[in-house]
Amino acid sequence: MLCANPEAGFLHRRLGSESQRAKTGLASFEPTRKSALCHLIVVGGHTRSIGKTQLVCDLIATFPDERWLAGKITQYGHGVCAQNGKDCDCAPTEHVVALDWELPGRPLTKENSDTARFLEAGAARAFWLRTKQGYLAEGMPLLRDALAAPRNKANQGCADLNVIIESNSLLQFVKPSLYLVVFDASREDFKDSARLMLDRADVFVHRPGADESDAAGSRRLQLPSKLLREKPSLRQRLGEPLPESLRQLVKRVLESPPTVTI
Ligand SMILES: [Zn+2]
Question: What span, in angstroms and rounded, lies between the C-alpha atoms of 22 and 29?
Fold first, then answer.
């Protein structure tokens, strides 16, 4: 019988060629497809609500011409659906990842979502990658596709791909151009994913409390003091402009050739 479905025909041909390749051995495997080369800035922090999203927005707004591709990665707790962040009765291995683009006029959430704030700050595009806890590996192909999506015409052939992502866990999978870690010593909660990645931080951004020294706060959070001494750190209260030293550092990164691929 003739196959009328061109896609099915393609599948047959592909399967045929794959079985031929299997006979010839490992040498015929294709390398995994990678994202475009990019500048990648990752913003993490030890817990929620300490101004990680604000730091992403500050960076986007400080460099308004960079056509940022901005994203946020959220890992939900065990048993929680990645599609809607709630219990939707899906099996543990169902709905493990979801990636959505924030578009003007079609908000991802009713309230002012973090990705909407990225667009308001001036990002060209913004996405939200959600996974069940421990399933970020399954989300990486979606992220790779997001970073390989066709560039729009205004961007073609000139600008580099500039990506900024709010996450700690992404550090398990990629070495970014820059990893900024936000600390607020008044908040004691410390995510394991953040503690694990502390050594990878390029700069610590402290959110100073009203009545406590940075040193006292660091002791209370049990931050490794050697790490803190060795790494550059700076202070920025919420609402203050991006510190000049950080602006200079990011400028140097953006001016250097893009080297990160996912
Ligand atoms: Zn579900």
Answer: 9
pLDDT tens column, 84-141: 888 788 888 889 999 999 987 777 776 778 999 999 999 999 999 999 999 999 999 9
Distance 63 CA to ligand 1 centre (A): 38
Separation CA 115–CA 101 (nearest Å): 8
Ligand 1 centroid – CA 85 distance (Å): 8
pTM of the predicted structure, to 2 decimals = 0.83
Residue 58 lies in domain: 38-74+114-128+136-255
Instruction: Read off the pLDDT of residues 198-211 as tens digits, 9 standing for 90 and up.
Output: 889 999 999 887 55
Distance from the alpha carbon of residue 128 to the mean position of ligand 1, in angstroms: 16
For residue 81, how far is its CA from the centre of ligand 1 (angstroms)? 4
Cβ–Cβ under 8 Å, residues 143 and 40: no
**Which domain CATH number covers 51?**
3.40.50.300
